Amino acid sequence: MRKILLDNAYESWSSAIEYHDYIKQGYATIKYKKQFVSSLHNAVELFLKQILLDKNDHDVAEIKKVKNADMANLRAEYYASHNLNQFFEDLEKNGSDNLNYFSSIPFYRLIGKANKIIGKNSYEKSLKLLQALRNNGTHFYINGKNFLNDKEFLQLHNFMLDFFDYLCEINLIPVYRIDSKTNEKIFDLEYRKLNFNEKKMDNFSYVDVVKSNDLSLKIKKVITSDEWRTYCYSCSTIYDFVVYITVTDKQLDGNFNDIYTLLIMMNELKLIEIPEHLEKNAKKYNKQGRETEMFCNIKVNF
């Protein structure tokens, strides 16, 4: 029997791991945070709905308004079905509009059913956090400094580990074997991208991960050098600094986007301080069309 939601669930779970890893390395701008939250929310929703389908739980979907006899018959067929995976797959294969009449269970109701589905009360708090973050990231203006803070990322990281173990336990993510020495899960090539090979964390700090990133240390070496302090003309924005860094150190030339992201994080976390006079001098330079003496005395706090 084909589990009809798994392909989409796998893609979302794989994406959540990808953006989780970016964040854990210090690439934690609003772009990466929102992608992580969105992917994880989608993956969890699809997996939970797949579990309901497998349990033949008809709460997974409903026809809200019956407008004619055909829709009434369709609803009756749905509630009489003993194989919901097959039921919905047949609707899709038939190419009719009948599938569009159904609305799947919303996430807030999935949270209420999660304890019964999985039997772990600890999930409710994390699922509510995930729902709140997803709603804020989708429907409201977000300040990247406050969205998915240190404690929230820590909570979702540890939740992912518990949820991943459960998915493996019920074979929604098939484990090939368990290594007898390390107790590590081994996966076939098809499922390796789904492996959340992490450990529980007791604490997490964006400041710490940015400071310890190898590329951050290379950036620090450039911007604290005597060569960097010499005239850099119209530099005033982070983009300008990235251009100058990649020109100054040819080994960093292929890391433009990563350097840009890390400098944004450093500035946001006060790991670097850019003097106000740089912007003023840059405006003067642009207005007069000539070089203005401007030393790049960026203060580095790590």
Describe the structure concisely:
By secondary structure, the protein is mainly alpha-helical.
Walk me through this protein's architecture:
With 302 residues, the protein is mostly helical. It has helices at residues 6-24, 30-54, 69-80, 84-94, 107-118, 123-139, 150-169, 206-212, 214-223, 226-229, 238-248, 256-268, 277-288, and strands at residues 61-62, 103-104, 177-178, 185-186, 272-273, 299-300. It has a two-stranded antiparallel ribbon with strand order 1-2. A two-stranded antiparallel ribbon has the order 3-4. Strand 3 and strand 4 form a beta hairpin.
Task: Chart the SSEs and their pairings.
Elements lengths: L5 H19 L5 H25 L6 E2 L6 H12 L3 H11 L8 E2 L2 H12 L4 H17 L10 H20 L7 E2 L6 E2 L19 H7 L1 H10 L2 H4 L8 H11 L7 H13 L3 E2 L3 H12 L10 E2 L2
Antiparallel strand pairs: 1-2, 3-4, 5-6
Helix pairs in contact: 1-2, 2-5, 2-6, 5-6, 6-7, 11-12
How many extended strands?
6
In terms of DSSP E residues, the strand content is under 5%
Strand order of the biggest β-sheet: 1-2
Uncertain residue ranges: 285-294
Mean pLDDT: 88
Which descriptors would you attach to this protein?
13 helices, 302 residues, elongated, mainly alpha
